[in-house]
Each structure stands twice: as C-alpha cells, then as structure tokens.
Amino acid sequence: MTDEKQYKSGYAAIIGKPNVGKSTVLNSLIGEKVAIVSKKPQTTRNNITGILTREDAQVVFIDTPGIHEPWNLLGKNMVRLANESLNGVDLIIFVLDAKSGLRNEDENIFKIIKGENKPVIILINKVDLVDKLKVLPLIDTISKMGTFKEIIPVSAEKGDNMDVLLKKIIENLPYGPKYFPDDQITDKNERFIVAELIREKVLILSHEEIPHSVAVLVEEFKERTKSLIYIRATVFVEKLSQKKIIVGHKGQMLKKIGEKARKDMQAFFNKRIYLDLWVKVYENWRKDAQALRMLEYK
Ligand code: GDP
Ligand code: MG
Predict the structure, then answer these.
(1) By three-state DSSP, how is residue 50 classified?
(2) Which of 24, 26, 68 to mutate to test ligand 1, by most ligand atoms within 8 A of the CB atom?
(3) What pTM, to 2 d.p., does this model score?
(4) CA distances from 248 to 35, 81, 253, 260, 276 (A)
(5) Can you list the domains of the chain with their CATH numbers?
(6) Is 234 close to ligand 1, i.e. is its CB under 6 Å away?
(7) Distance 154 CA to ligand 1 centre (A)
(8) Cβ contacts of residue 121 below 8 Å, gap of 6+?
(9) Which pairing describes strands 47-53 and 57-63: parallel, antiparallel, or unpaired?
(10) CA of 124 to the centre of ligand 2 (A)
C-alpha cells in the first residue's frame, strides 16, 4: 500500500515547438520501460504519452493537442483553446532548444502559460550543441519572461542533467494517489488510433455487412527502436463467414487491410511500423461484458 500523504502524483504536460526534443525528453525520463505494455483500461485525459511510476511518485506525461497548433495564427481564441487543453494538468514542462534560441513560437507558448496558474519548469534542451557560455544569457532572458519553478539546461539525448529534471518534476507535483498500476506505461490514445485505423480499413475494404460485428484489439504496441514501432493487433468478428471475408482468398484481403492501415500509421507516428495482424472469431462478443471491457467499448 502506498501512503497517500507521502505519495506524489500528477499529470505533466510536455510542451514546446516541434523538434525541440519533447519525445526524446520523454523517452529519456521513462527509459526502457516504455516498451512494456499492459492491457489494463485507463481513463482518457488528453493524450497520455507515458507513465513513470516510482516508489515515491507517479508522473503521467501527457501531450496537449491544442498546444502544437501553428502558432503564427495565434489570437485570443487560440490562447483560450490552448489553455483549455492544459486543463487538468498539474505541471507544465516547456522545452526550448538551446541551439535555435527563442523564436516566435516560443514566445507564443510563453503567452499561453502565463494564463495558467500552474507550476512551470523550463527545459533548455540540446545544450550539448552549444557553448556553455551561450546558455547563461538565455537562462537570464527567460527568467525575466515570467515566474518559473525551475530553468534547467539539459541534453536529453546525452542524458545530461536528466536526473535533476526528474527530481524537480517530482518536487513540484502535488501529493496524490497512484493513478495507474505499476506496470502501465502505455497510452490509450495511440492504441485507440491504431485500432480505429485498422477497423476503418476493414470497413472500407470488405463491402459486406460486417461493420458492427468488428472490433479491433491492439495487443502489443512497442517502440522497438527510435524509428520502428511493432504492433500486434487482432480483428474480432462474430462468425466464421465474416472471418473468411476479412482474410480473403489466400489472405489477400487481410494483407491489403494491413498494408493500408500500416501506411496511415506510418504517416501518423512518423515512424516505420511493423504490423502483425490477426483475425479471430469471438462469438457474440457484443453481448459478452468481459469481451466488451477487453475491447474497451462502453
Ligand atoms: P519533438 O518534435 O519535440 O518531439 O523532438 P524530438 O524528440 O523528436 O527530437 C527532434 C530532434 O532533436 C531529433 O533528431 C533528436 O535526436 C534531436 N535531439 C533531441 N534532444 C537532443 C539533445 O539533447 N541533443 C541533441 N544534439 N539532439 C537532440
Ligand atoms: Mg515528438
């Protein structure tokens, strides 16, 4: 049992313009455990990208969809939208690129977080690419741009100062319960998207009346390397006749479904996808509460 008075937990949003190293920061913080996947259902709250569980704390890292919009369009509305996407977040981690320095997009994000009454940690990433003497004036400039809990220079790629970052993240989290089981580090949204992409292809390619009797379960979702994701998924149908349609003559239909789904996934994740796709008959799964739960249908 965890003592809730001692235990720290919360949702941390990692924000910043594209290519500053947000994903690298996340991977570095989560470490190899990113590869471990659990089937337990979870609540959806923004896009969970990683869950870090320790003896003393649990950090749920999330991606805030609204915040990565094209910021040259920034207006009051956009700021409001972005602020809404930060609802329910306990801590904001704003990543900057030491090499590119402050840009317009960064300034816009500063405007957004100003509207939030939340602890903010500023990360100056990629310090391995610049002269240390250049980082100090950047820290100085940033410190005048608002009130921040910390401004931490790191190299997510080299792992420099990441231990300090993690310590500061946990320090700035509220006390709270363990939201997710220890072994859960995955994110429903990615799996959900994968499942939906497969289901979509099944529906598009098999013209028969299969729609409502198809469900897709993503059984494994593993980032094998930085650029390759391994996905094992099963298409559940209710009858053998439906399975035959989806598999097709000599497996041609299933192959086509897989190819099309994989293409979309590669575009979505911007990574190579290895898709291991299966079809199984699960009679009356729509009437089976356990099956419904497994397939995460409400
Ligand atoms: P994101 O778009 O913000 O998620 O950025 P990514 O994590 O995908 O990183 C963008 C690029 O920056 C990749 O090529 C990374 O390898 C690189 N990168 C990330 N962190 C560092 C770092 O600390 N040092 C260096 N040199 N490169 C980094
Ligand atoms: Mg990324």
Answers:
(1) strand
(2) 24
(3) 0.64
(4) 33, 45, 5, 15, 17
(5) 8-171 (3.40.50.300), 190-294 (3.30.300.20)
(6) no
(7) 12
(8) 91, 92, 93, 94, 148, 149, 150, 151, 152, 165, 168, 169, 172
(9) antiparallel
(10) 16
How remote is the CA of residue 184 from the centroid of ligand 2, in Å? 21
Instruction: Give the tokens for residue 228.
Output: 């390759």
Please give the Cα distance from 209 to 215 (Å, whole number): 14
Angle at 183 between CA 179 and CA 186, to 5 degrees: 75
Rounded to the nearest whole angstrom, what is the distance from the C-alpha of residue 18 to the centroid of ligand 1?
9
Nearest ligand to residue 19 Cα: 1
Are 34 and 177 spatial neighbours (Cβ–Cβ below 8 Å)?
no
Mean pLDDT by 10 residues, the chain (298 residues): 74 87 83 35 47 91 66 58 79 95 89 88 97 94 95 95 97 90 64 83 76 82 90 92 93 96 86 95 75 58
Q: How far apart are the first and last CA of the chain?
A: 30
What is the atom index within ligand 1 of the atom nearest the CA of 27? 7
Please tell me the distance from the alpha carbon of residue 20 to that of residue 24, in angstroms, as a whole number. Answer: 9
Report which of 192, 190, 200, 255 is spatially closest to residue 223, judged by C-alpha positions.
190
H-only helix segments in 144-288? 162-171, 188-205, 240-247, 252-269
Strand bridging mode 57-63 / 120-125? unpaired
- Largest separation between any pair of C-alpha atoms in the chain: 69
Confirm if 42 and 184 have CB atoms less than 8 A apart. Answer: yes
Ligand 1 lined by 157 (C-beta under 6 Å): yes
Of all protein residues, the one whose alpha carbon is nearest to atom 22 of ligand 1 is 126
**Ligand 1 within 6 A of CB of 17:** no
